Description:
- The protein has helices spanning 4-16, 19-22, 45-57, 60-67, 72-78, 101-114, 119-122, 134-146, 212-217, 240-243, 256-261, 287-294, 357-374, 390-396, 412-422, 435-458, 473-482, 501-518, 530-537, and strands at 224-229, 302-306, 332-337, 379-384, 464-469.
- By secondary structure, the chain is mainly alpha-helical.
- The chain has a 5-stranded parallel beta sheet with strand order 2-1-3-4-5.
- β3, α13 and β4 form a beta-alpha-beta unit.
- The two termini are 31 Å apart.
- Bound molecules: calcium ion (CA) (3 copies).
- One calcium ion binds at residues 152-154, 156, 158-159, 173, 176.
Amino acid sequence: MKSPWNILLVTPLFLLLPLRTSASPASDDSPSTRNPNGHTCLEKLFLKTTCYLVIEMFGPDIIKLLSTDMNADVVCHTLKFCKQDPGQPLCHLYPLPKEAWKFTLEKARQIVKKSPALKYSRSSADICSLPFLAKICQKIKLAIKNSVPFKDVDSDKYSVFPTLRGYHWRGRDCNDSNKMAYPGRRPDNWDVHEDSNCNGIWGVDPKDGIPYEKKFCEGSQPRGIILLGDSAGAHFHISPEWITASQMSLKSFVNLPTALTNELNWPQISGATGFLDSISGIKEKSIYLRLRKRNHCNHRDYQNISRNGASSQNLDRFIESLSRDPLLDHPAIIIYAMIGNDVCNGKADPVPEMTTPKKLYSSVMKTLKYLNSHLPNGSHVILYGLPNGTFLWDNLHNRYYPLGQLNKDVTYAHFYSFLNCLQVSPCHSWMSSNKTLRNLTSERAKQLSNTLKNIATSQKFTNFDLFYADFDFQEVTEEWQKRGGEPWQLIEPVDGFHPNEVALLLLADRLWKKVELHWPQVLGKENPFNPQIEQVFGDQGGH
Ligand SMILES: [Ca+2]
Ligand SMILES: [Ca+2]
Ligand SMILES: [Ca+2]
């Protein structure tokens, strides 16, 4: 995806797609029968507005529209979420309606014209044109534009608010009125009076008068984890419950506001910086949680500097949101993981848009120079390679898309070509029936990985050492199969593109083991005081 904002604009499209199936007789938990003032909607403004939006979108008028045998394609075009430019083919997901397309579309427009509920969305494809969403849209746009927390009183780039680039993305600020107190810094005066680095360790041991931070953390070489990534690193995820009619109820949308204000990402359960227990129940932990387990002094020292649509070519637009003071802060492990957008885009001809090895070389060198002047001495940078994305088509094309399961009429091959037709595919070049194109994309991805490998082996920097690691999706798939799983279970079902939570945690596991084996100095040593830290400070203030 080109712009992070566009991805939000595509969301209504995803939410519209199931309308056809939701037109079946309303069940008791159908959102259309619920009152918008129901208890799930009361808590927060954005929760309320989202619930309201859902009611609007799945309201009785659309149901009426659909009950006249108009499918989601008609609705999508009527509301202009789907566009047909002059001379362009008509994009549709489902088989075309029985009546002539133009006639059906005209009929739908007549119904919409009479409907007061639909008049807002009719004029524009931007859901932010809905008056009750304007405010929240403004907030989201700001946070996205700068990739720094929206709510940050002391402007140290750390927040006490979870979403809108808050602590779901980087460690929680333990004092939001003191810009010299934030996760990852070297303790100020051994944190005798205050927890200056937010790791939950502070004060003086009354038995011997030694500050706890000095006693437990000095010499343990604390370090943070920072991901420079794209939507995969931020864990882009659209819940299938949002779009699968059979599971649809207002309860399904409870996590939608959180997701929207995180740009549809779930960094709090991602492979690199996740700090919450996995939803999938897989036992593997994120890189951050492993670093924390190894040394409890690392508590809260994580930053997920990722963006939807990020690539080597646009990282310079948000790298400044990274927060690390070369003198005041502890060293960090930086994972550079631009794994797809240098070869992926939604263009009708995606090839000319791909990054060349030469362009990659120069932009990565620029990034590394930036890091060298902003990272504390003793840091580590790992360049992560690109995957071979042919597994997407190979494992998914003849499977049913979540929306197509009910009527057995939409496969991933259909879904992919629908996205390509609308030119909104996150990766036309791998999500395509064109085998030559898929192979060409893999070939380019391999060249780019080799470029990263060459940089890692030939370049030296004063403030960090540099490594290269392959993106081992093939190995992760084999590991998953050994456990009795199927390869398609590792892909996000709704977008048919991103690695899902299980895949991300298995990839993190593999990377951790590789680093531990070959470059153990990157991870540091086990802190022998961990049990005492637990004893004195419990959960250290949690996350
Ligand atoms: Ca702050
Ligand atoms: Ca602060
Ligand atoms: Ca501390």
